[in-house]
Amino acid sequence: MPASPIRKLVPYANSAKQRGIKIYHLNIGQPDIHTPKVAINAIKNIDRKVLEYSDSAGIPALREKLTHYYRAQNIELSKEEIMVTTGGSEAFIFAFFCCFNPGDEIIIPEPFYANYSSFANAMGINIKPISSTFERGFALPTIEKFEKLITPQTKGIFICNPNNPTGYLYSKEELHQLRDIVLQNNLFLLSDEVYREFCYDERGHFSALNLKGLEENVVLIDSFSKRYSECGIRIGTLVSRNKELISSALKFAQARLSPPLLGQIAAIASLDVAPKYTADVYKEYLQRRDVLVEGLNKIPGVKSLIPKGAFYTMAKLPVKDSEHFCQWILSDFEYQGQTVMMAPGSGFYSSRYLGKDEVRIAYVLNVEELKKALIVIEKALEVYPGKIN
Amino acid sequence: MPASPIRKLVPYANSAKQRGIKIYHLNIGQPDIHTPKVAINAIKNIDRKVLEYSDSAGIPALREKLTHYYRAQNIELSKEEIMVTTGGSEAFIFAFFCCFNPGDEIIIPEPFYANYSSFANAMGINIKPISSTFERGFALPTIEKFEKLITPQTKGIFICNPNNPTGYLYSKEELHQLRDIVLQNNLFLLSDEVYREFCYDERGHFSALNLKGLEENVVLIDSFSKRYSECGIRIGTLVSRNKELISSALKFAQARLSPPLLGQIAAIASLDVAPKYTADVYKEYLQRRDVLVEGLNKIPGVKSLIPKGAFYTMAKLPVKDSEHFCQWILSDFEYQGQTVMMAPGSGFYSSRYLGKDEVRIAYVLNVEELKKALIVIEKALEVYPGKIN
C-alpha cells in the first residue's frame, strides 16, 4: 500500500518548521473555519455518567434529524436508509465491503481522492481509472470511454461530487448519463457528496440519490466533517435505499460496535445550526476561491480552472515534476521566512505519468494568508531549477 | 456475513419491552460503571474553536502518556510503537489488514468473541478454531493440537487474554507455549488484552508483549472502553514493536484520516484517574463475579467455572439448545414482570454443534440486579419445555 501522497511531504515540512519557516498549508482539507458554537456547546453541556456504546447504526435521534436535513436538500429518505458511520471514511469502507468482492473492478474518474484506493487495494478490489482532463475542464468522460472500460468484473462506478481534488461539479445531465451506464450494466453507483454545501454555480447540486430508477444501485457517502468544519468528530453517513445493502452494512456496523458517541452528540447539535452560519461559510469559501484562482492565473505559466464546488483546485504549474517542486519548495526555498505545502497531482492519478505538472491546492486558509501563499509560489517558480519555459 | 449472535435476539427483547417486561441485560459488555469524572470533565471543559482532525496515529500527548500507562503494567514501549485507533475494533481490523492476505489462516481458540470473524470473513481470511472446553476449564489447547492445525497457509494465532467470552486468564506458562509455536512457524501472535485490569488471580496478567524473542511477531489490541467504562468514546490502541507492521498500519490510519478527537480528549484525561477508581471498579466486578457464579451453581443443572478475568462467564445450562432457550425466555417467559437476555453460546463457536448448552453471561449489572436475574433464570429453567433432566 503506497504512502498517502499528501502526507509524504510531512518530513520536509517538519524540517522546514524546525528551521523557523512559516508554512502555508494548502495541502490538506482541514479548514480553519470555526465549528458551530451549538456543536461545541452540546459537548460542553453533556450530562452523562457513562459514556456508553450507542446503537450500531447511530443514535436514532440523529438518524431521524438527518431525514429533515436531507429533505431540505430535496432528498427524501427514511431513517432506516441512513446509517451513521465513523466519518465518511468508514462509510466508504463499509460500502466497499458490502458492494464488492476481491477481483471486482470499480471505475473511478481520475484524478481522485487518493484514500479511496488504499482500502480498495487491501480488499483486492481493482480500481480502473477513467481520465478526466484539465483540458476538458475535468468534466465526466464520455459514455463511450466508460463502455470501453466495462468488463464482466466491473461492479461499480465511484464518483465524488462536487469533486475532490478538481472542484468539478457534475451536472444533472452528466448524472443521467451515468444512470444509463449503471442500469445497463447492473452496477453500483457510489457517490461521495461530502462537499454538497459548497457549490458555486447557479445550477446547484444534483444528488445521485435523486436519479430515478437507481434506488437499488446508489450508495451515498456523506460526512459532517466539511459541512460544519468538524473533521475531528468522525461522523459520516452511509445512505442507500437498497434494503439488502443497508442490512449487510449493519452487520459490519455491529461488528465494530458503535460510531463515536461524543461526535454524534456534536452532530445532532450541528443540524440545528443557524442558516447564517452556512451562508457565511459559503461566502467565505467563494471569496477564497476567487482570490486563489485569480492569483494563480496571474502567475506566469500557472493555470487554474474556476472550480464550481468543494474547496480545491487542480492547478497546472510550469514544472516537469510537481512532486519534486512540492518537495523543493519545502526543502530548498523560502521567501521572507515563508513557504507553502501543496499536494502533488500525480498522487491523485492511478495512471502513471498523469498529473506530473499538476498540484492540488486547498483553499482552507483565509484570504490574507492565501495572498501571501500566492506570492511564495510566484517567487518560487521564478527560481525553481526544474521549470519549463 | 452472519448476524451478530448477541444482537440476533434484539427483536425479541424489544417485543418483551413493549409488553412492559423488565429485561436484565446479561448479553452485552456495556457496563453500568460510571466513567471517571476526570474524563467527563475534560470533555465539558474543551476550549477549542475548531474540532479538527488529529494526527492519524493519535494525539502525540496521548501516545506519550500511554507509554507511562504501559510502563506501570510492566510493559516498556516507545510512543512510536503505539498507534491510537477508533476502538479496539479498528485495531483488529488494521491488524488483520497488515498481517494477513486473502487465503491466509488464523488459529483462534474457541469459544471466541464473535466480532473477530465478521471482518476476517469479509477479508477472505480463514479462521481455524481450536477448541478450548468447559471440561478443561477453557485452558489453552495443547501444543499438539495447535501443531495439527498448522498448514503453510497459517499466518497467525489470535488470543484474547483475559478471555471474552470464557473469563479464562492465560498463565505465563501457556503464553510461553504459544511463543514456541509462534517462533517455530513464523506466525503473528495477535493478543486482545482489553480486559487487562480485570484479573482475579494472584498470578496477575502476563502480556504477550513481554514474551522475549517475539518482538517482531506480537501485535496487541487494546482499548479504553472497558478499563474506564467509556465504550462510547471509541478509543483503542494497536501496539507492536514490529516497525514494518506499525508503518503499514499507519498507512491505513492515514487513509481513514484520524481517530476521534473528542474521544482522545477523554482518553488523555482518563489516564489521570485516581488509583481509587480502578481499585473500586475492580472490587465491584469481583463481588459481582462471586454473586453470579455462586448463584449460577446453585441452580439445579447449571454449572459455571470461576472466571479469573474479564467480566463474563460461559455457563452450562441443562438445555438442548441454548439459542432457543435465550429466545424463549424473552418471548414466552416472565417472572414477576421480569426476564433476562443472554448470549447463546453457539455464536461464540466457529465449529458447528459446539456450545449448544452454553450461554455467555456478562456481569455488568450491580449485585442486586444480578440476584434478581438469577432468580429469573432459575424460575425459567423450572418450566422451560426444552430442558434436559
TrEMBL record, chains A, B:
Residues 23-374 form the Aminotransferase class I/classII large domain. Its cofactor is pyridoxal 5'-phosphate. GO terms for biological process: amino acid metabolic process. The keyword Transferase applies. It comes from the Bacteria. Keywords: Aminotransferase, Pyridoxal phosphate, Transferase. It holds the Pfam family Aminotran_1_2. One of its GO terms (molecular function) is transaminase activity. SUPFAM superfamilies: PLP-dependent transferases. The keyword Transferase applies. InterPro entries: Aminotransferase_I/II_large (IPR004839), AspAT/PAT-like (IPR050596), PyrdxlP-dep_Trfase (IPR015424), PyrdxlP-dep_Trfase_major (IPR015421), PyrdxlP-dep_Trfase_small (IPR015422). Belongs to the class-I pyridoxal-phosphate-dependent aminotransferase family. This is Aspartate aminotransferase. It comes from Saccharicrinis fermentans DSM 9555 = JCM 21142.
